[in-house]
Amino acid sequence: MKQGVLMQYFEWYLPSDPHLYQKVKADAQHLFDIGVTALWLPPAFKGIGGTQDVGYGVYDLYDLGEFYQKGTVPTKYGTKDEYLQAIQALQQVGIQVYGDIVLNHKMGADGYEDVKASEVNQHDTYDIEKQNEWIQVPTLFTFPNRHQKYSDFTWDWSCFDGIDYDAKTKRHATFLFQDKTWDSQVDNENGNYDYLMGADLDFSNHRVVSELKRWGEWYLDTTHIDGFRLDAVKHINASFYQDWLYHMRQYTHQELFTVGEYWHGDVQKLLQYLSEVNYSLSLFDVPLHYHFYEASRSFGQYDMSQIFNNTLVQKACMNAVTFVDNHDTQPQQGLQSWVLDWFKPLAYALILLRKDGYPCIFYGDYYGIEKPSLSGQNQVIDRLLYLRQYYAYGQQNDYFYDRHIIGWTREAYGLACIMTNQNGGQLYMYVGQQYQNQIFYDYLENVNETVTIDDKGYGLFTVQDGSVSVYIPKK
User: Fold this and answer.
1) What residue numbers bound the domain in which 93 lies?
2) In the chain, fewer beta carbons within 10 Å around the N or the C end?
3) Is the same domain home to 69 and 196?
């Protein structure tokens, strides 16, 4: 059985033509062959931006590219039929599919309503700056072009607790609706980080919660996906997703693997959230990403022996999805923190060749990025995936003693990884006595010299400047 490898199959600046779903379908066998076991597809529902919406400006959860809304039938990624065909093609070759779920907010309303609201301080949402004024807000969602197919639910202002725009005065600010309170089980940045963007869903409204459960059932029945990636979980009551996931798992009698995006560099915040949801889902290891980012930009000064210190994979490895970069961290994005190209092979070795964590590969790292034009690193990632699939098993021995040259070995099939963020050098590492007198070579071809394992099962492994080498037995 293959070791799990997740791939995020999109980046922010993908063109809308050709449709991504068509590419996914054609790419399914290749993805399976290189060792991908699950694919995270982008949000599939119609957004406010039509074919230009990446998927996070959610308009209609029931429109997967089926209805003429927001100036288009297809979403940025294709039609509903293409989406379903892509999912089926992936599952037929043995790849699971995770849907990207965006329930925090809605955008692109069909009408306006007059409501009483208080303007709050954007940097401290408990601080009310103007109390109870009448504003005009885009909160009426009737989806006239869907004609109530799949759901007759109408969203009005009572389904939300706040918004960031008053159409009457054309004023951008954060407003809390009268008789509403921000969700409490959220991140405490900005006092309370319930509000993120758009019309913010009120998860204390039972009608809203019931409709989201009905939608979840419909989405699973329609797509037959295998799991979820949850967007912006730190802005949503923790109890909501714990309850919603329990409902979906009971409904399908399936595991429905789920990973949430809780964007914070402090691992304690992630651990607190996992505790609040009773470890019912995994989280992306954001602290580890920031370690990669810092290491890639520290001109060799980063202490590589501490690369896993205070990361989720260190503190809660069973709930950690490790990654190098994603659509939010890529250049020109709001959370831009791009790991430099020279460090990418080191970072991918750190997530793919060790025993802990569920690694996620980014489309932009593999295939490249449209804007700014950045080349992919598919050749080295393919090699690391091969090593994960055939060699990265068994007892793991760590050599994290030096500030710059670190390494580890895996004993089952013989693997020794060594890397440095500074000058090259050597590590004397144990691979197992069963390999004595065997010759190991660098599968990544960064070092030409081979290594002969001694009678005690050790070898002296070499790495070049700012590089990574992975040694395996010569056949």
Assistant:
1) 6-102+207-390
2) N
3) no
Q: What is the CATH number of the domain that holds 323?
A: 3.20.20.80
Find the angle CA(70)-CA(75)-CA(81) to the nearest 5 degrees.
125
In a domain, 1, yes or no: no
pLDDT of 370 reads 85
- Main-chain dihedrals φ then ψ at residue 252, nearest 5 degrees: -100, -15
Counted domains in the chain: 3
What is the distance between the alpha carbons of residues 27 and 404, in angstroms, rounded to a whole number? 38
How many C-beta atoms surround the C-beta of residue 385 within 10 A? 26
Does one domain contain both 81 and 226?
A: yes
261, 303, 402, 454: the catalytic one is 261
The Cα–Cα gap between 44 and 53 comes to 10
Active site residue 445: no
Note the pLDDT of residue 147. Answer: 97
Catalytic site includes residue 261: yes
| Catalytically annotated residue among 194, 231, 285, 325 | 231
Residue 247 has a CB neighbour count (10 Å cut-off) of: 15
Question: Of the candidates 89, 96, 95, which has an alpha carbon nearest to the alpha carbon of residue 32?
Answer: 95
pLDDT at residue 2, as a whole number: 85
- pLDDT tens digit sequence for 225-256: 999 999 999 999 999 999 999 999 999 999 99
Q: Are residues 71 and 116 in the same domain?
A: no
- Span 301-311, average pLDDT: 98
Nearest Cα to Cα of residue 263 among 297, 312, 316, 309? 312
The model's pTM: 0.97
